[in-house]
Design brief:
This protein is α+β, with helices and mostly antiparallel strands and 120 residues long. It has two helices and ten strands. The protein is elongated. Bound molecules: iron/sulfur cluster.
């Protein structure tokens, strides 16, 4: 992989990380601490993200409901997960924290309702 640059988001210092692979070793420069080195390596080899989006709601007081993942999802799986969530419709009422999609796309992560939604 070519050299890549990231801004570390682990703390507000926002160090600029440069990550490159040399001889099978992933090397991080620019980090102000070990947590940033770890973050740079993860971003380079297996970037993960929390997922937040909305899903359609049947009979709710609003047409869509905001949802959030209960863990991080590999970035390469994000589109598959979003496509799945765009295709579902949940039935109101929904309680905040309710699991709306279990083990989404085999990631081991659940999708939860971010808020409650009353029935119309
Ligand atoms: S490298 Fe360390 S000090 Fe710099 S932003 Fe990341 S966590 Fe903060």
């Amino acid at each position: 992989m070519p050299e890549k640059e990231y801004v570390c988001i682990v703390c507000p210092n926002s160090c600029r990380l440069t990550v490159r692979e040399t001889g099978g070793e992933v090397e991080v420069t620019g980090a102000g601490c070990a947590r940033g080195v770890e973050h740079g390596k993860n971003e380079y080899t297996n970037p993960m993200r929390m997922l937040t989006t909305t899903v359609a709601v049947k009979d709710g007081i609003h047409p869509r409901l905001s949802v959030v993942s209960d863990g991080e999802i590999p970035r390469e799986k994000m589109k598959e997960c979003l496509d799945y969530l765009y295709g579902i419709e949940v039935q109101a009422p929904v309680k905040a924290g309710e699991v709306l999609a279990e083990n989404i796309c085999g990631t081991g992560v659940n999708i939860l309702a971010s808020r409650s939604m009353r029935q119309m």
